Every structure is written in structure tokens, then in C-alpha cells.
Amino acid sequence: MFLFRYCSERNLAVNPQGGNTGLVGGSVPVFDEIILSMALMNQIISFNSVSGILICQAGCILENLSQYLESMDFTMPLDLGAKGSCHIGGNVATNAGGLRVLRYGSLRGTVLGLEVVLADGSILNCLASLQKDNTGYDLKQLFIGSEGTLGVITTVSILCPQKPKAVNLAFLGCPGFSQVLETFTTCRGMLGEILSAYEFMDDKSMKLVESHLKLSNPVTGSPFYVLIETSGSNSAHDEEKLNHFLEQAMTSGLVMDGTVVTEDKRIKALWALRERITEALTHDGYVYKYDISLPVKRLYDLVTDTRERLGRSAKNVVGYGHLGDGNLHLNITAESYSHSLLEAIEPFVYEWTAQYQVSISAEHGLGFKKKHYIHYSKPREAVHLMQKFKAMLDPKGILNPYKTLPASSL
Ligand code: FAD
Ligand code: MLT
Ligand code: ZN
């Protein structure tokens, strides 16, 4: 690519930018980087309705791809609240998780191939759309989740599932977090292969959505809420299974109240309660955001410990997330940014996380905001090897510098 040859010869740094929805500052230049917007690379190249393989340019907006596929009875294997703006290239570059990981796995499995422009301007074509290919190292994996620091993703080949014929969504209130966990194990056992999402939100998250966005919660008065989605091919069979599960959950006291919807419009409205928490938080003040992977049993302990530690110095401490994947989103709001509040939160949150040897970034990446905390989740040797990869692929350090990795050895 001409731009890269030009930049490489002149030592000009480049910041690839997709839909700019990333939550850790990866798409935002720090000093004088040139912003490389991928927005005009938005063409669908091909779709094979037998294999389900979609090949498209990196700047395609996720929601546009979903709509295109849905017209052919297929769907994207990923979905997230930022779907209306984020690009598939940005999703791959961040290895975005989202709401469907429980069912379709991560992009590390569904992305079959990539075309990438390297820092010297050469084009790496790893676009072969094969589900099985063990010839040498799987190079595309290096670029998935590399946040634009190793190459610019220009084309993506992705395996898309058939659109489920029957979708049900249950929104339930639970009396405590232990019931949220027990409901999860119960529904995993009873719904089996039709379970496609299990998300949880605490009461405080819901209050923010209600007060700032004026969305109405159909099941009020519970300390926790869960969204359970089923996706299958036989509505009568799926509904029977779901009803059986709900009966069991209600009679055993796991669930206090709830509602189930099957109509597309109502499904979207219920999902909005979960998907728009991020937006509601931004209306609440300055937001300190954390995205932690940890054993599900411990998932909410970090929220209660943080709440207790911060007391009245925080406006709200809320927890929600992809419980089915062991992924907590801990968010703390304050009227405005406060350095002393930040000092009370960090490194506390990272140290708390490190005691369980889990991840300080489950799905959002490290970007600019979290690169210095990588050592809480990765050993020194691993970080060192990552720095060697970076130096090999981008010897002049022109690709999204100041992101993902600390500059020197730890
Ligand atoms: P950008 O924000 O533009 O960029 C993100 C990073 O990728 C940057 O480092 C950038 O340099 C790099 N990049 C972008 N495009 C390319 C490219 N073509 N080649 C190389 N590098 C590139 N994340 C989740 O994982 N799960 C969620 O459920 C989720 N929900 C969200 C909900 C909301 C409301 C919002 C605002 C964000 C959410 N996110 C979520 C964050 C998520 O990372 C992004 O939404 C998305 O994956 C980033 O895509 P983007 O196109 O906006 O990338
Ligand atoms: C989500 O699951 O809603 C996203 O990852 C965004 C967020 O954490 O705010
Ligand atoms: Zn998330």
C-alpha cells in the first residue's frame, strides 16, 4: 500500500481507525499520528450461501453486514451494542466479544482469513477461506486483537451461521447474585443447545438506563436481572423447553419475576435495556471503566468490594456483563474526573484481579488507557515476546505507537 511505503520512508506514524467506538483509546491518536480511516473500504466482496463464508472489506459496519446476511437467512456470529457504528475490521482488531460468544465462540474461531497491510507497505494475503488449514503457523491470529499495532486489516473472511428460525428472550429478576449463578447452571442444563446468550445486570445499571434514557424496565424491584436468549430451529420445541425451565426457576425461588418475548420488535426493546447501559453511564458523569475476565463464582465480588472501598466518593458503582463468558463490566461514575478517586480505584482493581490470575481486559483490549497494566495478566516473558513480534513486524514503530504494549521491557 502506497501510504505505508510513504510513511515508512518518512518515519510517519499511522493510527488505523474503524468506527471509533473502542473503549480503551486505541483509535485515538496521541501525538502527531496520521489517522487512517477505514470507512470507505466498505464493500462486501462475496458471500457463499452453502458454506456461510462472508468476505468483506474491513470498513463494513457490523449492523450493515448483519442486515445483508439476514436477507439471506444468515447472521453474523457476533453482535454488540456498538453495531451501528463499529466496523468488522475494528471488531477483528480488538477481538471484540459481545453478546453471542456463548453460542458462536470468539472471532479467533469464526474469522477464517484476513488480508493485512504491513508496516513496510507489503500485503499479507491470509485470506484463504478454509475451516481447516494446518500448514504452518496460523498468522492471522497475530492480527486478531492486535489493535492496529502489527498491521492494518483490509479484508476479512468470516464464517457466518444460519439465522435461527425461532428466537425467545426472557428478562428475569433474581433475588441475589447466587441465584443469578444458579439460574445460569439450571438453564445451561435445561436449555442446552438452544441457549444463545446469558447476560446479567445489577439493579444500579438498570436504574441508570431508566433514569437517563427513559427506557422502562418491565420487571422492577429485583437486585439483579438476567437476559436469557434461546435460538433454535423449532419454535414449539424451544418454547416448551423454555417454559419448563422458567417453571423450575420460579418454583425454586431462583427467579422473582420475569417476562418472555418472541416478537422481533419486543426482543430488540428488551435487548436495548442491556445494550444501552454504556450510553446511560456516559450521561451519569465521568466513567471509570473496567472489563474483567474471572471465574463466574467471583464475578460480583469485585463490584461489592469496590463499592465498599469507594463509599460515597463514587456516584455509582455498577456491574453487568457477559456472565456466560465469565466477563464482568465494572463501571464507576463520578460527577467529574477526580485524580484521588482514580487512585482509590487503581491499582486496587488490578491487584484484586491479579490475585485470581485472571484478565484485566476480557474483550476491550489495552489500547492507550491500559497498556501499562498488562503485567497484571501476562508474565514478563510473554510481554517481552510480544515486544519482539512488534519490533519484527514494525521495526520503525510507525503502526499505532503508544498502544497495547509498554514501550520498554518490564
Ligand atoms: P475503533 O474503535 O475505531 O478501533 C479500535 C482499535 O482497533 C484501535 O486500536 C484501532 O487502531 C484498531 N483498528 C480499527 N480498525 C482497524 C483495522 N482495519 N486494522 C487494524 N486495526 C484497526 N466490545 C466488546 O468486545 N464487546 C461488547 O459487547 C462491546 N460493546 C460495546 C458497546 C458500546 C455501546 C460501545 C461504544 C463499545 C462496545 N465495545 C464492545 C467496544 C468494542 O471494542 C468496539 O465497539 C469495536 O470492536 C471496535 O470497533 P471500531 O470499528 O469502532 O474500532
Ligand atoms: C458491553 O458489554 O455493554 C460492552 O462491552 C460495553 C461496556 O462495557 O460498556
Ligand atoms: Zn461487553
Q: Which characteristics define this entry?
A:
410 residues, Alpha-Beta Plaits, 3 domains, alpha+beta, Uridine Diphospho-n-acetylenolpyruvylglucosamine Reductase, domain 3, 22% strand, 7-stranded antiparallel beta sheet, binds zinc ion, binds D-malate, binds flavin-adenine dinucleotide
Can you characterise this structure?
The chain is of the alpha+beta class. It has helices spanning about 1-10, 60-70, 90-95, 100-105, 105-110, 140-145, 175-190, 205-215, 235-250, 265-275, 275-280, 300-310, 340-345, 350-355, 380-395, and strands at about 15, 35, 45-50, 55, 110-115, 125, 150-160, 165-175, 195-200, 225-230, 255-260, 285-295, 315-320, 325-335. A hairpin with a 4-residue loop joins strand 13 (about 315-320) and strand 14. Helix 7 (about 175-190) packs antiparallel against helix 9. The longest helix is centred in the middle third of the chain and has 17 residues, at about 235-250. The protein is globular and about 70 Å long. About 45% of the residues are buried. The model has no long low-confidence stretch (mean pLDDT about 95). The site of flavin-adenine dinucleotide has 36 residues, from strand 1, helix 3 and strand 7. The site of zinc ion has 3 residues, from loops.
